[in-house]
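Encode chain A's predicted structure.
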Amino acid sequence: MISRNEQYLSFILQDELYAIELSSVKELIRIPDVSRIPGMSDYVKGVINLRGKIIPVIDLRLRFGLAEQAYNDRTSVIVVEIPKDDEMQLCGFVADTAKEVLKISSVNISPPDCLQLDGIEYLKGIGNVDGDLIRLLNVDRIIAPDEQELLIQEASINDQRRTDYV
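Encoded structure for chain A:
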């Protein structure tokens, strides 16, 4: 078996270590003002304007059923690209704190099916770095397809409203 290193951006949620493939990450920003979208799930915090592009923001704590926490100066938004049909859609994931970029060898990643737990659909695997276990997220599965469609429609409507006022 050939081992290859993959790069991940690691971050903290409720004192636990998570990571997202670096190839999906477009940028890391501080939490800006978020405009709420009525009728969306609690974990959908709303949308932000990122240099003229309207993108949805998902609170990962709430998405994973963790306790809500007030945002502070360490709260980060990880802007990622997720596939939608034949295009890529930007989305922001709120994390307690961004950590560092990690290189994880493929031999140190266990598939999520090694766990017999509910909620593993978000996991790409479990990484082991120097004895620390890291939950590797599958960004394509964090937002349900029907909610993804609603978010894209709402972001489009908000983007159109924004350009109508300019």
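The domain at 5-164 is CATH 2.40.50.180 (OB fold (Dihydrolipoamide Acetyltransferase, E2P)).
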